[in-house]
Write a structure and sequence with these properties.
Rossmann fold, elongated, binds adenosine-5'-diphosphate, six-stranded mixed beta sheet, about 350 residues, single chain
Length: about 350
C-alpha cells in the first residue's frame, strides 16, 4: 500500500490547453479517494498523470515520499481499471486475470492459487474457462478488476469503471467495489461523474470543475458544508435548490415574496444591503405546512413525481425553480397552493456574484 502526495500539479496539453490547475492532495495509505465533476473537468487527466500515462507539466508527485514525476507506470506500482475493460477477447477469464503474473514469469502453481483466490473474491469461480464474449457486462468488469487486484500494487486507479453497465448492475458492482476495497485495504483513486458513486464509495471526495479543485472532503462535509454553489448543486439528488434574492433591511426579497431573515442569517448578510444573494436549501430539508423556527414560503405546485419512497414536488420561487421532497402520502395536487417550511439551520446563503458560501 502506498501514500501519495500531489503538490501544485498542473497539466498543460501540447496544444496549450490548461486542463488541470494547481492540484493539491495528500492521499493516505488505504484511502478511497473519488474525483468527481462534470465531463471535461480534468478528472481523467489527473488520474492519468498519477498512473504515469500522461506527463506532469509542473508540480511534484510523490509516492511514499519519493518524487515520482519521471517514473514509468511500472515503477509506480499502480494498477488501472478502465471504463472499456480492455480484456483480451481470445483469452479465457483465467488467462485474462493471470496475464500480469504470467508476464512477470511467476510460478504456475502460484498463479493458479492466486487466480482462484481472486476469482472467489469476485464471484467468478464458475466462469474461469469462459471467453469474455460469453460474460455479461458486470462479469467482464469484474474480470478487469480481478486482473488489477491480483498484482501486488501500491495503488488502484479506476476510471469510470461502471459507466458501461446498466443501472442495476452499477448498483451491484458499486457495493462489490466497496467490498473489494474493504478486503484488500488498497489505496484507491476512482474517477466518476456520478455523485451517488462518489458519495457511497469515497472516504474523501475531490470535486472538480474546469480544471480546478472546488472542494476536498468527506461525503458528510460536502453534503453539509459545501463551499460554493457548484459543490452544493453537484452533491445530493435532487441537488440543492437555489433562489436568488436581494437583501433589504433584514429581509430577502425575491419575486413577490419577502422573507424576514432571522438574527443569525441577518447578521451574515449585513454587508449585502441591496445586493443579490442566493438562498439555498435541500429538497429533503423541508416540511409541508408551517413550523416553528423555520422560513415559510407559499407556492403553487407545478408538477409532482411519485417515486415510491418520496414524491418530488416542482415549484417556482421568485424567478427560480425548486424541488421539494415530500412523503408520498402527502403528495399535493397540481395547481394546489401549498405552504412549506425550511428550518433555519438548513438554509445556506451564497454570494450572488462569487457564488461562495457566506459564512
Ligand atoms: P474528465 O475526465 O473530467 O472528463 P479530461 O481529464 O478527460 O476530463 O479532460 C479535461 C480537459 O482536457 C477537456 O477539456 C479535454 O478536452 C482536454 N483534453 C484531454 N486530453 C487532451 C489532449 N490530449 N490534448 C488537449 N486537450 C485534451
Amino acid at each position: 500500500m502506498a501514500y501519495l502526495t500531489l503538490k501544485n500539479i498542473n497539466k498543460i496539453y501540447p496544444n496549450g490547453y490548461h486542463a488541470v490547475h494547481n492540484f493539491n492532495l495528500d492521499i493516505d495509505k488505504g484511502e478511497f479517494i473519488v474525483f468527481v465533476g462534470p465531463s471535461g473537468c480534468g478528472k481523467s487527466t489527473t488520474l492519468r498523470m498519477i498512473a504515469g500515462l500522461e506527463d506532469i507539466s509542473n508540480g511534484d508527485f510523490l509516492i511514499n515520499g519519493n518524487r515520482a514525476n519521471e517514473w514509468g507506470p511500472r515503477q509506480r506500482e499502480v494498477a488501472m481499471v478502465f471504463q472499456s475493460y480492455a480484456l483480451y477477447p481470445q483469452m479465457t477469464v483465467f488467462d485474462n486475470i493471470a496475464f500480469g503474473l504470467t508476464l512477470q514469469g511467476v510460478d504456475e502453481e502460484v498463479i493458479e492459487e492466486k487466480v482462484k483466490h481472486t476469482a472467489e473474491i469476485l464471484g467468478l469461480t464458475d466462469y474461469l474457462d469462459r471467453l469474455p464474449r460469453a460474460l455479461s457486462g458486470g462479469q467482464r468488469q469484474r474480470v478487469a478488476i480481478g486482473r488489477a487486484i491480483i498484482r501486488k500494487v501500491g495503488v488502484f486507479l479506476m476510471d469510470e469503471p461502471l459507466s458501461n453497465l446498466d443501472a442495476k448492475q452499477r448498483v451491484t458492482m458499486r457495493s462489490e467495489i466497496a467490498q473489494i476495497h474493504k478486503s484488500t485495504g488498497a489505496t484507491t483513486i476512482y474517477v466518476t461523474h456520478d455523485q451517488t458513486e462518489a458519495m457511497t464509495l469515497a472516504d474523501r471526495i475531490v470535486v472538480m470543475k474546469d480544471g480546478y479543485v472546488q472542494q476536498i472532503g468527506t461525503p458528510y462535509e460536502l453534503y453539509y458544508n459545501p463551499v460554493n454553489v457548484f459543490v452544493a448543486g453537484f452533491i445530493g439528488e435532487p441537488p440543492m435548490n437555489f433562489i436568488r434574492g436581494t437583501v433589504q433591511g433584514g429581509t430577502l426579497g425575491f419575486g413577490d415574496n419577502v422573507l424576514a431573515l432571522d438574527k443569525k442569517l441577518g447578521n451574515k448578510v449585513k454587508d449585502y444591503e441591496g445586493k443579490e444573494i442566493i438562498f439555498g436549501f435541500r429538497p429533503e430539508h423541508i416540511e409541508l405546512g408551517k413550523a416553528d423556527g423555520a422560513y415559510q414560503l407559499e407556492t403553487v405546485v407545478e408538477l409532482t413525481e411519485m417515486l415510491g419512497d418520496n414524491t418530488n414536488v416542482y415549484i417556482t420561487a421568485g424567478e427560480d425553480k425548486a424541488i421539494l421532497k415530500v412523503d408520498p402520502h402527502d403528495t399535493p395536487e397540481i395547481d394546489e397552493k401549498i405552504t412549506f417550511s425550511i428550518p433555519v439551520e438548513n438554509v445556506y446563503l451564497f454570494d450572488g456574484e462569487t457564488e461562495m458560501v457566506i459564512k
